[in-house]
Amino acid sequence: MDMTNEAGDAPDALRLPSAAELLATTRHASAEPAEPVSADPDSDPLPCGRDPEAVLEHAAAGESDEHERSCPECQALLRDHSVLDQVTREWAELPVPVPDDLGTRVMRLVRAELHTGRLLPLGEPDEQLTLTETAAARTLRAAVDAEPGVQARSCRIRPYENRAGAAVPGPVTVRLSVGVPYGEPIHALADRLRERVRRAASERLGLEVAKVDVDVVGLEPAAGNREANR
Amino acid sequence: MRQPATRISRETSVLARTTAGSAALAVPGVVDLQPGLLDAVAQISGGLIPGRVPGVTTRVLDEVLHVDVQFRAAADRRVLDVAREVRAAVTAEVRRQTGHKRVVVHVLVTDAGV
Prior knowledge:
The complex is a heterodimer of chains A (230) and B (114). Chain A has eight helices and five strands, in the order H-H-H-H-H-E-E-H-E-E-H-E-H. Chain A is α+β, with helices and mostly antiparallel strands. Chain A has a three-stranded mixed β-sheet with strand order 3-4-5, covered by helices on one side. Chain B has three helices and four strands; from the N terminus they run H-E-H-E-E-H-E. Chain A binds chain B through residues 40, 42-43, 102, 105-106, 109-110, 113, 116, 119, 122-123, 127-132, 134-136, 138-139, 142, 203-207, and chain B through 7, 9-11, 36-37, 40-41, 44-45, 73, 75, 78-81, 83-84, 87, 104-112, 114. Strand 2 of chain A pairs parallel with strand 4 of chain B, so a sheet runs across the interface.
């Protein structure tokens, strides 16, 4: 879009005319000065009784009836809307500086949105309270990591489901995958991890846990061996 | 057959969203409202979309004003307690400020403060 004036000079700082200036221009050009109608298409009808949104729709489709073409209130609404439309079009054509990393930042947000996981109902059925699986899993993994020598790898939480398969408030099922220290009795360790998970779920989140499955997927060096290997 | 959604004025919906947002933020244990994808993209692009409150959306269905609030919780309170308190506070404030009696608040906690 060519932003230069008649002399070929660029206008100072891409200044757009203000709404007041545009209104003054359109009122001066119109045959009949009218009060601006501050009707909001989402609210009350115009003083003439017409729905503002309907008037705008008819005008956009070229189907204004005789009343809308001659009524001062309808015409004032259309004039104000055309001013807004003109300003919007001019602003839309302005060059917009785009940060180089905008695409990367947007994709990071999209991935974060996709990674919320399941939604876990909290409290009572009529309370409409929900917690994302990601948030709950983070809390439970931290509780597991607090066990000496254990490293939480993944945590999936399945909500309680009714007979229709819909998630409803109730005891959840947790599946953990962990790395455990070599030489540690695994069954006893798994029981301790289950207790940690249940306690964290209850005290930190307010979730009841029906079952905790523990998958041991890695063996970590025992603490003493780690020191010796340094 | 369900009645069609009843529209509320733009002013009322904006008032409901801003009221809900401020009421939620006033609850101890609420770290911040969690913007949805559209608002988050708008923020990193340099601005906010007029009339929107990041983390709060409203809709009307069968003359009931539904308010959805998303927030991040702190680690020092039980998430369920904070969520209940947010729901109660937002419900009371939106009713009081908008005059709309039938209000249902849906709460989503997106972080538990670890």
